[in-house]
Amino acid sequence: MGIALSALGLLLASVACGLSVAVALRVKKLLDPLTEEGALSGRRVAGPAPGTLVPLPGALVDMDGADVAWPADGSGPWVLTFQAVGCTGCKQQLPAYKKFLQKMALDRGRVVAVVVGDHEGASFYRDELGAYAHVVHGSDNALRLVEELGVSMFPTYLVVDRNGRVLASPQSSARLAETGAGLLTPTAVSA
Prior knowledge:
Number of strands: 5
Strand order of the largest sheet: 3-2-1-4-5
Largest sheet: 5 strands, mixed
């Protein structure tokens, strides 16, 4: 009788543990602000508002040692992104972001990616985005830029006009593709 009760107790404990894990995973999915279907997704922290002036951060050097001109190369709208080393959403969106940059065929001088976190982790982004963007480690002047713009959600993508004003600030690569494509399309120059 004791063995049967022990086996029944073990079975009930296993079922309870399984239910607890299932509930915890479901709650995480509902509350995780990085997931599109999360219950809080409508209440996300907004990025810098359109019209916000991107401050001049001072000297910036990308992870390859090249000076980064600000704003980008001055030839028109450009992209400024903020990623974080420990951000799973940043890494999940990276393939779509790279595809967007490839499709737009933007000059590398018109794309700056600021990566917050340890230098070793930031090198992953340099390896992934270095052909498309100046990848700047989020320290010193770059970190000051993050603070001055009030970026608190990663990833944050900004489309910035040639005068340094934010045109759009989506927080997903899908929204960047929707809004950014029209803003970054080169305009015909009349002769």
